[in-house]
Amino acid sequence: MSDNPFKIIEPREELPENLRKDVMGSVKTVVLMLRFVQLFVGDFSAVIIEKLSRSNKPSDQNDES
Amino acid sequence: MLKRKKRKLSDEEIVKIVVEEKSHDDFGILYDRYAEKVYRKCISFVKDTDLAQDLAHDIFIKTFVNLSRFTHKSRFSTWLYSLTYNFCIDYLRKNNKVRYESDDQLVNIPNDEDDRNEKELLSLKANRLASVLDLISPDDKAILLMKYQDDMSVKDLEVALEVSESAVKMRVKRARAKAVEIYRKTYTDE
């Protein structure tokens, strides 16, 4: 074992097995929330801009005007 | 990419994949590599396994949410440990679980005195060192653990603490001096 007392005092408790399940479950929820937010903030605004855009109209519509 | 192949990638390569794909499965690889370390660091600050478990949970969620802010200027482990220490320190502060003496008087510490402090600190009995670390400020404790337990270099500490090289050296010096001062006060029979 190392003589460095800082290494000696490092806790040795075992990691609880259920922690992984809890963390990964919460991370899954975070991913869902991020996607939900993106839908209404990121992607939704992009859809609005695309719909309202004048410069990106299909060329046949431009021709009609 | 196959899961088995991914497990051979570096932490930093896994981080890139997780950020790009928002993949919680790949985040599990980072969890498996570091969960025990993070959990044990939490125990060393809060001395309670249930609370340490809750803190470790929250630290990994914060890590996942902030992963895109990891700038690759340091190793991922340095960044994660820094986040862990800061999270524990904030928890202790918010819950008023820390009372420690101000170290305002420790401004200029000559180099020879600092050398003696370091030797004394590294020659302490483990149980006494543990007691001393619980009596100094959590910030001082964290910086000493980063240096002597995690073997972080000055460069690592610069990135972790987001301060200059000279500020890192000053903080380490002050933390050493404070720990030695508390040790001498506590164990006056030595």
Description of the structure:
- The complex is a heterodimer of chains A (65) and B (190).
- Chain A is an all-alpha fold and 65 residues long.
- In chain A, 69% of the residues lie in helices and 0% in strands.
- Chain A is built from 3 helices and no strands.
- Chain A is elongated and about 75 Å long.
- The mean pLDDT of chain A is 77.
- Chain B has 190 residues and is mostly helical.
- In chain B, helix 4 crosses helix 5, helix 5 (76-94) crosses helix 9 (154-161) and helix 7 crosses helix 10.
- Chain B contains 10 helices and no strands.
- Chain B folds into 2 domains: 2-94, RNA polymerase sigma factor, region 2, helix turn helix motif (Rna Polymerase Sigma Factor, Chain: A, Orthogonal Bundle), CATH 1.10.1740; 104-187, Winged helix-like DNA-binding domain superfamily/Winged helix DNA-binding domain (Arc Repressor Mutant, subunit A), CATH 1.10.10.
- The interface between A and B is medium-sized, with 26 and 34 residues.
